[in-house]
Amino acid sequence: MQHGHFRRFAPVDVLSERELSAIHQGALEILETGGANIRHAKTQALLEDAGCKVDREAGQVRIPPALAEECLRSVPSSYQIVARDRAMDVRIGGDRVHFLQGMGMRYVDTETWELRPATLREHAEVQIVGDALPNVHVMDALFAFTDLKDVPGIMQQLEGLANGFRYSVKPQHYGYLKDSDQFAIRMAQGLGVTLDAEIDVAPPVAFGDEALEAIWRFAELGWCVWASPGGRAGATAPGPLAGVQVQSWAGTMAFIVVTQLINRGTPVGLHPCDGVVHAKWAHGLPAAPETWYTRAMTNQLCRRYGIPVTTASGFCGHAKMFDYQAGMEKALGILTSVMTGSHLHTLQGSFAGELGYSNVLQVLDEEIAGNVGRYLLGTPIDDETLAVDESLEVGTAPASFMGRALTRQYWVKDRYEPLVADWGTHVDWVRGGKKDIVTRAQEKVDAILAEHRATPLTAEQSAHVEDVLAEAREYYRATGLLSEEEWAPYMRALEEADLPAPLEAAAD
Amino acid sequence: METLAALARAVDEYDAVAAAEHARKALDEGIDPVAAFDAMTAAIKTIGDDFEAGTRWLPDLIGAADAMKAAAPILEEALKARGGERQSLGKVVAGTVQGDIHSIGIEMVCTLLIAAGFEVHYLGIDVPAQKFVDAVRDTGADVVALSALLTVTSLEDKKVIELLTEQGLRDQVKVMVGGGAINADFAASIGADGYEPAAPGAVQLALSFVGAA
Question: Do residues B13 and B65 touch, judged by C-beta distance below 8 A?
Fold first, then answer.
């Protein structure tokens, strides 16, 4: 089991109990009076049977508060994701903090800072690096490079997931797209693993049929589903931040009602994508302080009602280079989120509002995760650590504690050592060629790619993955979602992918 | 041989009490004190190598040095009684200059110098300039290593060099300086022979001074 980071201290509260209650009551009122927009017939029937008022024509489902609160109580406060290597399983919830590999659309060229579609090989290399980094606890193979060169859009998530399984033994995250989750589930089942799925709640409080189909599939298996409400203040949610929170909580509770009615006890996590938008460009601001505060409120709300929460404060930022702004946005967003109680935090590699993804940034973000993890661990307070006897024994200056056994003991177990941050002397930095942190991170990436490979799939597992992919390709060709124009370049991209070889073969 | 191995192990395990015990036992068994010193030096060199490789840390070095310090006087006394002398790469007088009580950096330098094969005379902290000069004269030192962490005390480095010059000793000893307040420009401006910001580099500098680099 990957235990992640233990948060020794109580999370910071940003709301009073009365304020939390006000948000919750507001959400219940929205669900009872306005309702959720659900047009999916099977789900409408399920909700109607449970006592909801369903206007089938308008697609409005009004949910009684008692039902919402009853379902809320049946969501487990933690859940486990099963990995290909069971030692890599994770349990999300409680006072543990884990990190989820980030997501992004295109490859970031660190020479020009331009973005371009990634190759399948580059995607595979992201999996190798993620597998090697100890603070990437959950992989996000489907979302690393959602613009894969010559891979049709409909197949990108599945090709990504397949690469994730080929090059990592860690747990995998999934989403949904035109039924692709059914192939993802089959792929996972054949490998003996589970997935947790991120599923959108379309703000304000609406559910698409595709999303509901995916919820049914995952909930029937009892696999965790994440509600991902994305209301933006002043656009798809009210202008005030509290109003955003009420909207998101209403969407989340509707999501919970559906999942619990399908399969009582299905794990549900909240993965808020809400926040604020820029007043000029109208795009979302994941690294704005208002968004961080919105996440803090969500975290507290989830703690109050025992719902695991996965947040993404500042995970992709707004910076256009790996510069001061990039580091500041990520570090502050993440720290404010984990301090207020998030369990799984999206982080490593995301860039420029999810427009870009980078292996170099994956390593840089790993450094942030390591620092944050050490901070969360805090320090125990007991007779040994208070060290009064030790102080009395050593005495006053010029005495030193440096050679003491207690110092040696805590120096090893109590100190964080940076991965790529330079804590050395200025003189050594000059002598070493004045390397910046981006250069050092690139060197780390190169070293990992040269030295690390996860345990490969067995021949049988590999054949299973290929079979599911082949089946999905034919399914989408037959439904017209994979066009004949896309097919030839797609096949060529697969043939010429030049995926990373096992290390033994690479050495040959 | 078993006792020498135990002595080395005591240094490796930072055990000052055991180091002193095994030093006495070695002498009781008629082992040459020089051989006992060599066993400890070899142990501390391994720790120094680990330190440079990043597998052991500053407290390990200091802990090992403390163990060695506990055994050294016992062996020194026996060596003197026999009229013998340890072979070394050279003699180093080291300390933190007057007004400055920081010791960690210079102690690390001393430990690594011992590990490299130097005979080190550590004068401690807050050392008056004349005391460095006297020690150079008394020991016939090849190198004097001055540490100053504070800007206000770094000028003491200059005072030591001036006194060495005034008292006719400057030509026989190399002066290296270090510490947080120092940089290469400052070292050059006061007429020091060398500057290093960190302990491993200081050892290389000392080795170059005695033609062993």
Answer: no
Q: Which of A400, A405, A411 lies nearest to residue B104, judging by beta carbons?
A: A400
B-chain CB neighbours of A408 within 8 Å are 14, 57, 59-60, 63
Contact residues on chain B for A407, CB-CB shorter than 8 A: 59, 63
In a domain, residue B86? The reply is no
Beta strands across the sheet bearing A106-108: A115-116, A106-108, A356-357, A350-351
From CA A4, how far away is CA A374, in angstroms rounded?
11
Residues with Cβ within 8 Å of A354's Cβ and at least 6 positions away in sequence, in order, are A103, A104, A105, A316
Which residue on chain A is closest to B185 by alpha carbon?
Answer: A427
**Could you tell me the pTM of the whole model?**
0.90
Residue B59 lies in a domain: yes
The least confident of A230-239, A329-338, B7-16 is: A230-239
Bridge-based pairing state of the strands B174-178 and B194-195:
parallel
Contact between chains at A400 and B62 (C-beta distance less than 8 A): yes
Sequence length of chain A is: 508
Which residues from chain A sit within 8 angstroms of residue B184, using beta carbons? 427
DSSP assignment, residue A33? I
Kindly report the nearest CA distance between residue A414 and chain B, in angstroms: 13
For the domain spanning A83-193+316-379+414-480+492-508, the CATH number is: 3.20.20.480
Where residue A505 falls among pLDDT bands split at 50, 70, 90?
Answer: low
Residue A508 confidence (pLDDT) above 60: no
Residue numbers of the domain that contains B193 = 91-209
Q: How far is A429 from chain B (nearest CA, A)?
A: 11
- What number is the ipTM of this complex? 0.78
Check if A1-71+198-311 and A83-193+316-379+414-480+492-508 are the same fold: yes
When pLDDT is averaged across residues B90-114 and rounded to a whole number, the result is: 89
Chain B nearest-CA distance from A327, in A, is 27
Cα A194 to the chain's mean position, in Å? 16
